[in-house]
Amino acid sequence: MTGRLMPRTATGRRRVLTLGLAIVLVLMLLPYLWLVLTSLKNRTDIFSGDVFSAFTPTLDNFRLAFIQKGFARNLLNSTIVATTAMAIAMAVGVPAGYALSRTTARSGTFLLFVMLAARLMPVVVLAVPLFVIMANLGLVGTYAGPVVAHLTFLVPFVVWMMRGFFLAVPKELDEAALMDGATRARYFFTLLLPMTRGPLAATAIFALINSWNELLYGLILTNKLTATLPVATPSLMTPIGTFWGQIAAVGVVTTLPVLVFALLVQRHIVRGMTGGALSDG
User: Fold this and answer.
1) CATH number of the domain located at residue range(s) 67-278 in this protein
2) In the chain, how long is the greatest CA-to-CA distance?
3) How distant, in Å, are the alpha carbons of 83, 119, 149, 210 from that of 131?
4) d(C-alpha 280, C-alpha 50), whole Å
5) For 269-275, what is the mean pLDDT?
6) Are 188 and 95 within 8 A, CB to CB?
7) pLDDT for res 271
8) In the chain, what are the domain boundaries?
9) Across residues 203-232, what is the average pLDDT?
C-alpha cells in the first residue's frame, strides 16, 4: 500500500512544483509582454488604459524609431562596442583565468584580489579618470573609448568566472598532456578549451549582456555618431511628450539580440553554470 502511495505523492509534488514555476515564469514575462504589446500599438491604443485589450498591430513605432530617427545606427554602435569588448575580454581573460587557476604564487592571489576590487568598484568612481584619459588620447567619440572602458569590468569578470571553471579540471590532466609531449599552448587550445565549451558560452553571454546594457561610460565617452542604444533611448523623452511606443520598440530590439543569442547557446550556458559548481576555488 505504501509503495503505491509513494509514486503518487512524488508525482503530485512534481506537478505542484511545475505549476508554481509556471506561475513565476508568467509573472516574470508579463513586463516583457507589456513591452512587446506597447511597441505594436499606436498612441491612442497605448493610452487606452487596458494593456490586453484588442487592437490593430502596427510597426509604425519601429519605422519611426529605427528609420526616421536613426536608431538603426545606435543598434549598430551597440553591436560593435559590445561584441568587440566581449571578444577582447574573452581573449585576455580566459588564458589569464587558466594561468591563475594553476599558479600557487602569492602574486597570483594578490592579482586576483586586485581584479576583484576593480570589479566591485562602482563605475562612477572610474568615470572621470577614464574620461580624462580618453580625452587626452583623442578617443572620446570613438568606438575605442567605450570598448576600453568596458574592459575595466569585463576582464575581471571573465578571469574570475573562468578561473573557477578551470579549477574544476584536474591538474593531473595537464600533467598527462605535457608528459605526452604536448606544449602548454597546444593542450590549452586543442584539449582544454573544447572541454569547457559550456563555461565559455556562459561567460561570453554574461559579458556580452554587461557590455550591451552599460550606460554611464557610454554617456561620457560617445557622441551622436557613436552613441549606443541605452545612451540614445532617453532622447525619446522630449519636452513636448514621451514617445512610449517608440521607447517600447527600441526596448524590444535592444533585448532581442541578446535573447536570441542566449537561446542559441542555452544548452552550453546550463552546462557551464552547473559545471562551475564542481570548482573548489
Assistant:
1) 1.10.3720.10
2) 81
3) 22, 18, 9, 20
4) 52
5) 54
6) yes
7) 58
8) 67-278
9) 93
